[in-house]
Input
Amino acid sequence: MKKEVYARRVNEAARLMKESGMDVILLTKPSNMAYLTGDGRLCAYAMITKEGHVGMGVPKTDVEDVRQLAAFDEIVGFEDEVGMIHSIAHYFKHFGIESGTMGLENTFLTQSMMGMLTHPHAKPETVTTKDCTAIMSALRIVKDDEEIDHIRTAGLVAVKGMSAAIEAVKAGMTESQVAGEAEYAMRAAGAEEFWRTYVSSGPRTNIAHGLPTNRKLQEGDLVMIDIHPIVNGYSADVCRTVCVGSATSEQQAAYDLYLKALRATIAKVRAGSAIVDLDDTLHNVIKEAGHGEHLFGPTIHGVGIDFEEAPLPPGHAFFHGEKAPAPLKKGVVIAIGNCGLYIGPWGVRIEDTVVVQEETALAVTDYPYSLT
Amino acid sequence: MKKEVYARRVNEAARLMKESGMDVILLTKPSNMAYLTGDGRLCAYAMITKEGHVGMGVPKTDVEDVRQLAAFDEIVGFEDEVGMIHSIAHYFKHFGIESGTMGLENTFLTQSMMGMLTHPHAKPETVTTKDCTAIMSALRIVKDDEEIDHIRTAGLVAVKGMSAAIEAVKAGMTESQVAGEAEYAMRAAGAEEFWRTYVSSGPRTNIAHGLPTNRKLQEGDLVMIDIHPIVNGYSADVCRTVCVGSATSEQQAAYDLYLKALRATIAKVRAGSAIVDLDDTLHNVIKEAGHGEHLFGPTIHGVGIDFEEAPLPPGHAFFHGEKAPAPLKKGVVIAIGNCGLYIGPWGVRIEDTVVVQEETALAVTDYPYSLT
Output
């Protein structure tokens, strides 16, 4: 992306900071850093002032690499944790910030990271802190055309990954090997990275977060595959459930029901839709079929640089430092179908990423729906 | 592992808790939960009392799965974050804890997770908190025979991954595709999971944490490959640097120097060795060759359920809530070669995992050393 894009984003960040009574924000979450500067990496930070100045701190080995990738006013390289702390102090002095309020990413920072960023040798004692999670989400929630292009490209790569995984599903394969097929295909198709792959099978399709194990697929098993490639720094999120061999009529009915609920929900997506209404739509289709109590987990989440980001459903949002979501705007990207339907000693789940448009939803992950 | 193993570990945890003035610990870090109960997963917790009682809380979908994998006294399933908070309150009541001190994982918990675990509806106001990171590390630092077997198995899988990656190194391949070869081979060889794969090439071998990109390998590039499979819940850590085609004499000299330093360090590993001395050994070989200022990053870290865990070097340890490391005991597992030697517009790094034995180091990741 062009330098102007980052300049515009930083200006918008500065505006929101002033609105929220923050004089400076100190970012360490890679996705937030990437959004405002063009580069996000661990063990690094970006300090943004309400005047729109950007100072970055990175391991001294990384200065040249970051210089080529990121837009900033200043960069310093540090040797270790002590150096990082001192470099933060340097920026406070350099930007002339002796008091005021600093925004920090409470949903990302561990207690020990927080200890470093607010260390007496880093932050002036007179600078207080507050959470800036909601500001960063507000900035990132509506995607511009270039971001949507990247997410759609990630969607194409996700489809290739899903295709490879489903092709590999047969009795005797391990969950881990199925995951491997998806990952290998995604890297071959241009993913520079991916978020953790979920593959669960048989009774394990019942659990909330089915990371792969060495369980071997058996005839009649359901297999749940959830993948999230990263391409050009942006993600897509897709989940499919398939059966090893032929499905029972109960499994097929559960699948058909989930698909009906998903389609009804996607059909309601447009600018102005409320997340709670979409959530209700999916839940109501399942409830009307008598399976309300078999549904578990939030239905929807946002997708962007992170594969799970704002908007989040209201309850979830509160505990993740987010504001309750406003009506969806054009250009917001969401994954629908994050909840599981757990009926038997197995579960089904189908999830797709879509872009909110004026009157409709644009499919990002366009992979066929078929249990068998 | 057998139930008795977890009972013994919980008893030892209870002993350390009493020594450190803690009445209860509340764990959410998967590796810590796995060590004491046999199961570790996200969005779940284990509460351990100083009497050695274990209460687990998991998503309600996961109760049956965890029941089969973990050893505990009580388990509750919750619906969402509010349910999680209430289930914690239930355990405080159930275990009769109205006051005292609760240990929490400060190096793992984000501000928002901390907010949930210490929410007024979860924790009695009269219960204070402190960091239990060092207790968990003290418990986990010496590996028993079964753990060492698992780590050695992970080492064999790591070697297969490295072999596949290096075989794929040629001009035109992307860093991401090389990573894909390693990951695919590790899953095929029995890894249920892996930690993020690092592959960097050309000028990118200079950066501290070289996650793969779509950069295409070019003739004469150095390529740094760092992989960490998880097998039976345990990790191994191996890094190799190789050249696309023929290396320059400067590259070969840097490689030979690093290898000399690594070998000198491994030769000094035995029960009673101090991490700082091993660190000095590696550094001194490099310094004596005039490249002291080209070395970056800590030399050594522990390996176990996590691929980076205690022991950590003293400076690093402080910022990660760990105590400065004691002399190494038999059964501690470490990776040596975590630092990079950044001489030109490229870097080299060679890293191996070893088990500390009475008189020597046992190689876990036994892959040949060869730049070309």
Notes: The first helix of chain B runs from residue 3 to 19.
